[in-house]
Amino acid sequence: MEKPVLSLDFTIDDIHKLREYNYFVTKNMTPQERMDYYNKKGRAFQQEIEKCKL
């Protein structure tokens, strides 16, 4: 499955696309792999937010 393309309006359909993509990516992961995946993404987002604050 390809990464979804989101609309500029960010509609409910975009949320559904993201959820479906996220499920597809993580469905065969072990619980530890899934935790590492989410932590890595969360840390990257947190760093991006910290950059914007400066």
The pLDDT mean sits at 94
> What would you call the quaternary organization?
single chain
- Unreliable stretches: none
Q: In percent, how helical is the residue content?
A: over 70%
Major sheet size, sense and barrel closure? none
Span of the ends, CA to CA: 36 Å
Beta-strand content bin: under 5%
Query: Strand pairing plus helix content: what structural class?
Result: mainly alpha
Q: How many strand units?
A: 0
Q: Helix count?
A: 2
Order of helices and strands: HH
Overall 3D shape:
flat
Radius of gyration of CA atoms, rounded to a whole number: 14 Å
Describe the structure.
This protein is mainly alpha-helical and 54 residues long. The protein has two helices and no strands. The longest helix has 23 residues. 0% of the residues are buried. The mean pLDDT is 94.
List the topology elements.
Elements: H1 12-26, H2 31-53
Provide key terms for this protein.
54 residues
Quick overview:
This protein has helices at residues 12-26, 31-53. It is mostly helical.
